[in-house]
Amino acid sequence: MLLIDGKKTSEEIKSEIGASVAQIKEKGGKSPHLAAILVGNDGASQTYVGAKVKACEQVGFESTLVRLEETVTEEELLKVVEGINQNDEIDGLIVQLPLPKHISVEKVTNKIKPEKDVDGFTPANVGRMTLGWPAYVAATPYGIVELLKRYNIDTAGKHCVVIGRSHIVGSPMSILMARNEYPGNCTVTLTHSRTQNLSEITKTADILIVAIGKPEFVTADMVKEGATVIDVGIHRIADASKKSGFKLIGDVKFDEVAAKVAAITPVPGGVGPMTIASLLYNTLLAAEGKVYSK
């Protein structure tokens, strides 16, 4: 069984990005600059944004963190986004989700300039990705594609089953795995909460990508012998035996599934670290103008 190590791979990617930044500086260019907007005091969001800021420092990026109160109005937030859109010193912009209920995620996402949308969430980037044009691909799907590539997982002609149809992971993943390039050229089945006979479908998967948001949902009897399993889920579960008082698990029951498959990502240390590495890579592309110049 091959353990697909996202932590190790993400460090390799960050090292490559850091080398690119050093070359940019040697030629007299400026460091790539990522801005993040954080609304409110959600603990998980603060942790995620903090990790992104730290990763920027690690690779030599500039970073700006804009903190706004939970009570900020939609209009005020949109003005902040537009200000960053117009700031030529900033290459990439992310707005950390979730947002307070009184703010439209659609309006805020649509306000972000596509050339700075390093999260890959705007209609322009989703559309370009769907058409196979140069685009900023959402960080988690891009991270999964990069893992498959760097671990030389054969995808051509394989049956890929995706569990979960979110706009952030499942839907773009299904498009990327079906495209006419590597990794890709799969026959893809996109499953979701209304899919009937789900386990019968998953048992036919050569590549199973699980992004359903349910702890240990996928068990060994749902998986084909010798399959590749990518677990996108992450859940914090109480565990008195741990010093922290909790443990992290995924959407896949790791121990029993790992014994049956050819390759699998762990949780933690699988897809998660790749998301931040992919975000940094998109920001580097934005700084170099390599997406929207084509």
TrEMBL record:
It catalyses: (6R)-5,10-methylene-5,6,7,8-tetrahydrofolate + NADP(+) = (6R)-5,10-methenyltetrahydrofolate + NADPH; (6R)-5,10-methenyltetrahydrofolate + H2O = (6R)-10-formyltetrahydrofolate + H(+). NADP(+) binds at G164, R165, S166, I234. It holds the Pfam family THF_DHG_CYH_C. SUPFAM superfamilies: Aminoacid dehydrogenase-like, N-terminal domain, NAD(P)-binding Rossmann-fold domains. Residues 139-288 form the Tetrahydrofolate dehydrogenase/cyclohydrolase NAD(P)-binding domain. Residues 4-119 form the Tetrahydrofolate dehydrogenase/cyclohydrolase catalytic domain. One of its GO terms (molecular function) is methenyltetrahydrofolate cyclohydrolase activity. This is Bifunctional protein FolD. It comes from Belliella pelovolcani.
